[in-house]
Structures are given as structure tokens and as C-alpha cells.
TrEMBL record, chains A, B:
Organism: Streptomyces antioxidans
InterPro entries the record matches: ArsR-like_HTH (IPR011991), AsnC-type_HTH_dom (IPR000485), Dimeric_a/b-barrel (IPR011008), Tscrpt_reg_AsnC-like (IPR019888), Tscrpt_reg_AsnC/Lrp_C (IPR019887), Tscrpt_reg_HTH_AsnC-type_CS (IPR019885), WH-like_DNA-bd_sf (IPR036388), WH_DNA-bd_sf (IPR036390)
GO molecular function: sequence-specific DNA binding
PANTHER family xrefs: LEUCINE-RESPONSIVE REGULATORY PROTEIN, TRANSCRIPTIONAL REGULATORY PROTEIN (PROBABLY ASNC-FAMILY)-RELATED
Protein name as catalogued: AsnC family transcriptional regulator
GO terms (BP aspect): response to amino acid
Keywords: DNA-binding, Transcription, Transcription regulation
Taxonomic placement: Bacteria, Bacillati, Actinomycetota, Actinomycetes, Kitasatosporales
Length: 146, 146
DNA sequence: GTTGAAATAGATTCTTC
DNA sequence: GAAGAATCTATTTCAAC
């Protein structure tokens, strides 16, 4: 990453708040022309700073109201790559974080109800050499800019 | 949420993979007309299923290479709303999850380096009635569809 | 639910400074 | 680096089915 200035930061902030924000909307905000804004956003994509765009979904509205983090501990011989692989095949898993120390992984899951959560946790325990789990039930959440 | 069918699910899946996917791109995929796709996406926005759109950023490219989860425990008298409020004023905090049981909150932070992480954790400890913290350093991560 | 057409707006490219 | 104009593409609305 060579130069990266306040204008770039401003553009990223605007795109974080609205990923479909147009060049014409951003241009006056940063005091540049539409063409100049396009060149900057293109450069952010080319350099990989912008990985892509996505939609923000309210999962409770879809009936997937329960969110939890599952801490997983594995036997010492389990390679990290296998931990991730055994987790992301489970459709309820939203994200997997491999961790230094204890636990070995933190898995973010989203489920319809408690019974469903129980099934998902059982599924995670079964695959691989899991030695223990601890489930953190999410009561509420706040995410930056969402 | 009244009716919500496979076409809607397909549209959400496509928008998750590319939030800037156009109606004209989605229409042939789901076998509907452009106008019909627009009506469905508009309905998903109106009903709140679609909360918004955002950009996916590679923070390592911006020099914020370290990611961690901090488990926070509070005194019994601390209201949940205050926990969230004291956390999201810290700019390094990406997300706050309030938890049922122990710990009371799980905080996702993103920092430049270890020294910076130390400062952020110290900052989180200072505000509110924090009785203990445990930090999970993220070695690697996988997120659905990202 | 569909099609097609028309109007608007945004993206993109090119030439200019 | 930047602006402005021309072109193309997509969105949006509408009428009719």
C-alpha cells in the first residue's frame, strides 16, 4: 500500500455506510470530480483494499433469530486448516476464527431456535478431534456502521 | 415476514456474493424479468430483510493486521446498554456482542500491532465496572461468502 | 406474474488542461 | 493529478397484457 490519504479513507467510510453509493454522490463530498472518484475506487479495488461488496441482511426477519459463538478446543495434533474446513461445511456457520491459545477456534453460528442450536453444536463436536466446546449465546449486538 | 420463497433466497445469495449485482444480471439467473426482480428486491428492502449494502475491506492492506476478540466480565450491577455504549466509542471496536452468562460481552477489535492491542484492552478495562478480560488473538479467519 | 418502450441517471471512456 | 463532454449501460416508471 503506497499512498493512502484522507480522501481514500473518506470514500471507504461512505462505501461502508452505503455500498451502493454512486460516484456522483461521493464526488461533491470529497471535493473531487466523478472521474477522479472512479479512478480512486478502481485503484482501491485493484490494490485489493476493497475485496468486494455485499448486502446486509436482518436474519431475525428471516426467522433465524438466534446467534451464538462456539469456542472449540481440539486435540493438539489437529492442523488449523482442518479446523476451518470442518466448520465451514456447516451451513449455520457464519464465520470461523482460529485462535492462538485456548480455545483453538471461535465459530459464529446463526440458527432458528435453541433446538437447532443444539443440533449445530452436536454437529461441530462430531467432526474432527474436538475435545471441548463452550457456547456463548448472543443476547444483543452492535456492529460498526451497520 | 409473509411469503418468502426460493427466488428471494437466490436473490439474497447473489447480493451477498456481490452487493452491486445488477437487476439485469440477476434476472436470467432466477428466470424472471428485470422488472420482477426489482420489485422483489424493493420488497426485501421495504420489509427490512435487506438492511443495506456495504463494502468488504481488506484491513491488512491498510496496516490493521491484527484482529482479536476480547471477553469482558462486568460487575453484576452493570446494565447491558452501558456495556455496549462504553465499547463502541472505542474506534478499534468492530462489533460488540452481549452474552448470556460468562463472559458478559464479546468484543471484536482490529488493531495495527500488539502494542496497539494492549492500549485498546487497557482502554476497555478502564471504562465501566469491568471485573476481568480474556483476549482471544485471531490467527486466521473465514467468513461465509466473503 | 409478463413484455416493451420511454425517460432518467449513473458508469465509462476520451480528450483536454 | 484534474475537468468536461460523449457514449453506453442500467435503473426506473409506465402502460398493456
Amino acid at each position: 500500500m503506497p499512498e493512502f490519504d484522507d480522501v481514500d479513507r473518506q470514500l471507504l467510510r461512505m462505501l461502508r455506510e452505503d455500498g451502493r453509493c454512486t460516484f456522483s454522490e461521493m464526488a461533491p463530498e470529497v471535493g473531487l470530480s466523478v472521474a477522479a472518484v472512479k479512478r480512486r475506487v478502481d485503484r482501491l479495488k485493484d490494490t485489493g483494499v476493497i475485496k468486494g461488496f455485499t448486502v446486509q441482511i436482518d436474519h431475525t426477519k428471516l426467522g433465524w433469530g438466534i446467534e451464538a459463538f462456539v469456542e472449540l478446543s481440539y486435540t493438539g495434533t489437529t492442523p488449523v486448516g482442518e479446523i476451518v474446513r470442518t466448520c465451514y461445511t456447516v451451513p449455520e456457520v457464519q464465520a470461523v476464527f482460529t485462535i492462538a491459545g485456548d480455545p483453538d477456534a471461535l465459530v459464529h453460528v446463526r440458527v432458528r431456535d435453541i433446538e437447532h442450536l443444539q443440533q449445530v453444536i452436536d454437529g461441530l463436536r462430531r467432526v474432527g478431534q474436538v475435545t471441548g466446546t463452550k457456547t456463548l449465546m448472543v443476547l444483543g449486538s452492535w456492529t460498526r456502521t451497520a
